[in-house]
Amino acid sequence: MAVAYESGVIKIYQLDWTKKYLLELKGHQSTCQSIYISHSNPYFLYSASTDSTVRIWNLRDYAQVYMLQLDVLIDEITFITEALLFINKN
């Protein structure tokens, strides 16, 4: 399970009876507005922040694999298909 925080940190928890805290994904400089994990490829987490970035994280090794810097404030990300991303902005 992934939980996004106002600080920009994303915390990862083990989703079983233990609900064990695993680690934090750090990179966003302000509020993480939206996170997405694909059903067809659950090894990648996509996050969007009011710092105008969309980041892709590899959940196998918990490393950031890509960052897209935009020139708009992002409210939410929605995936239309695995290759088509919709960004809702302020």
Most strands sheet: 4 strands, antiparallel
Query: For the largest beta sheet, what order do the strands appear in spatially?
Result: 4-5-6-7
Instruction: Give the structural class.
Output: mainly beta
Question: Helix and strand succession?
Answer: EEEEEEEEE
- What general outline do the C-alpha atoms trace? globular
Q: How many beta-strand elements?
A: 9
Whole-number count of domains: 1
Question: Could you describe the 3D structure shown?
Answer:
The chain has 90 residues and is mainly β. The protein has one domain. 0% of the residues lie in helices and 57% in strands. The protein has no helices and nine strands. A four-stranded antiparallel beta sheet has the order 4-5-6-7, with no helix packed on it. Strands 1-2-3 form a three-stranded antiparallel beta sheet, with no helix packed on it. The chain has a two-stranded antiparallel ribbon with strand order 8-9. A hairpin with a 3-residue loop joins strand 5 and strand 6 (53-58). The mean pLDDT is 86.
Offer a quick outline of the entry.
0% of the residues lie in helices and 57% in strands.
